[in-house]
Amino acid sequence: MLMRTDPFRELDRVAQQLMGPGTWSKPSAMPMDAYREGDEYVVAFDIPGVTADALDIDVERNMLTVKAERRPAVKADDVKMELSERPLGVFSRQIVLADTLDTERIQADYDAGVLTLRIPIAERAKPRKISVGVGSGRREISG
Question: Which of 13, 115, 117, 138 is most exposed by smallest CB count within 10 Å?
Answer without folding.
Answer: 138
